[in-house]
Amino acid sequence: MKQVSPSGRNLIVATELTAEELWQPFEPGVDGPWDLPAAAHLFRRAGFGADRKQLEAAVKKSPQQVVDELLDVPEPAEFLSEMQTLATAAISGGNVEPLSAWWVYRILGTPRQLLEKTVLFWHGHFATGADKVTEPQLMLTQNQLLRRLAFAGFGELVHQISKDPAMLLYLDSASNRKAHPNENYARELMELFCLGEGQYTEQDIRELARCFTGWEVRRGEYRFNRFQHDTGSRAFLGASGEFSGEQAVDVVLRQPQTAQFIVSKMLRFFVLDEPVDVVALTAPLARQFRDSGLQIRPLLRTILTSRLFFSRRSVGRRIKSPVELALGLLRCLEGTTNTVGLAKSLQQLGQGLLYPPSVKGWDGGRTWINSSTLLGRSNLMRQLITDPNTRFGRQSLPDYLSARDLREPAEMLAELQLLLFAVPIPLRSRDSILSLMKPRSEAALAEGLHALCTLPEFQLC
Questions:
Q1: DSSP-assigned beta bridge partners for residue 10
Q2: pLDDT tens, position by position, 333-380
Q3: Residue 68: helix, strand or coil by DSSP?
Q4: In this structure, are residues 166 and 221 in contact, taking their beta carbons and an 8 Å threshold?
Q5: N or C terminus of the chain: which is more exposed, having fewer CB within 10 Å?
Q6: Residue extents of the structural domains in the chain
């Protein structure tokens, strides 16, 4: 069944389909249009947004082809070299904050938007904070690990993160002794990383923690100290034996709940904040993920090409995080800015890259919105738009719009709505913003753009 959206676009009504049908590939013309707004939706979710040229190129291909390109597009050698040089400079002062700015710069410049969006997902999932891990090289190493394995097997990613020095330091497991096993990593491995709440007992935690004894960090690297490893038998999650740490991770990964837990988190991050009956909805996807050996790439492809993803149940049903809010504006308008200042502003607004609030990461969804954060979001967008360092296609905002044959306020507003909004702008708001933009000066257009960015509709993606 289809329904006409407020913008006049026919979108599939997902509630009329079974869970199995929702995860089938989206068919343009059958399930809804594959047009510029649909492509903009894909780029907002699978990245941080796209300019008109990218959208026009996308609609000439199938949604599946675009997603495959997002998964596989290479980064030019020159870009990789620049990122390496900048990363080396960022960590040279012994302070992590420049590394946060480096990541903002990387997100703005990379052609691999889906990769960076997925790295952001894993950063929130395997949350590690530079407020505690103050060595920038360790935070960079973890960030590169998440990027290298972002689309790989979840099992490999968990094994690698379990020995990551930054993670071990963050969870106080860098010197885990058999006489006094540290339970932090054992708890978070099950509760936050693999299984979710209520899937284990306190006894499981104690027994699993024994498996990780002897795991240390020495001179910034993981080291196994066999003299401090508990070699006795232990029993947890229905398994028993003299498990090594690696074998213990495999026991956790084999639990049926693992696939369901990861799929549910990805659903909330890429599709919709508040799914109804999430277990039933994700059951087919969890089964596919489990049958694939917990491979991330095919899971992402299924999600991003699905009927559910392009349905009314998904479009405009997520609240933008601060990173999506600010970097989305820049990516859609080919913008650049002072990334050091932007990184600090994002931290003040609650989403500093490399500075998650706790090992739980960011809750997301409605937690991004309250009276305080709305003011902060407005101030961030004003600061970003009026910053002399902010350029759009290396031009001023009026010149950027004029170069695209957008000279009348109504034309400008229509273009900005296409690029920046997942849902229609109310008529009253539209008239008010057109009035602000009418003088067409740089100040007037900046004021109009800021007014757009403070609308409730702009907070959605």
A1: 4
A2: 999 999 999 999 999 999 999 999 999 999 999 999 999 999 999 999
A3: helix
A4: no
A5: N
A6: 322-459
Q: CA 137 to CA 166: how far, in whole Å?
A: 9
- Report yes or no: 339 and 108 within 8 Å, Cβ to Cβ: yes
Cα 258 to Cα 144, 293, 406: the distances in Å are: 24, 11, 50
Pairing of strands 215-218, 221-224: antiparallel
- Kindly report, residue by residue over 247-300, the tens digit of the pLDDT: 999 999 999 999 999 999 999 999 999 988 999 999 999 999 999 999 999 999
- The pair of three-digit structure tokens given for residue 461, joined into one six-digit string: 């993606």
DSSP state of 191: I
Please state, in angstroms and rounded to a whole number, the distance separating the CA atoms of residues 307 and 93: 48
CA 255 remoteness from chain centre: 25
Gap between the Cα atoms of 183 and 176, Å rounded: 9
DSSP 419-441: HH-SSPPPHHHHHHHHHHHTT-S
pLDDT at 77: 98
The separation between the first and the last C-alpha atoms of the chain, rounded to the nearest angstrom, is 23
List, in order, residues 6 or more apart from 230 with CB less than 8 Å away. 178, 181, 210, 211, 213, 214
Q: What is the pLDDT of residue 363?
A: 96
pLDDT in tens, 144-176: 999 999 999 999 999 999 999 999 999 998 888
- How far apart are alpha carbons 456 and 382 in whole angstroms? 16
HEC string of 299-353 equals HHHHHHCECCCCCCCCCCCCECCHHHHHHHHHHHCCEECCHHHHHHHHHHCCCCC
The pLDDT > 90 percentage for the chain reads 95
- DSSP letter string over 196-229? -TTSS-HHHHHHHHHHTTTEEEETTEEEE-GGG-
More confident residue, 262 or 2: 262
Q: Which amino acid is at 1?
A: M
Q: Is the pLDDT of residue 213 over 80?
A: yes
Q: Record the tokens describing residue 79, joined without a space.
A: 């870009």
Q: How far apart are alpha carbons 190 and 134 in whole angstroms?
A: 26
- Of the candidates 390, 339, 357, 351, the one whose C-alpha atom is nearest the C-alpha of residue 89 is 339
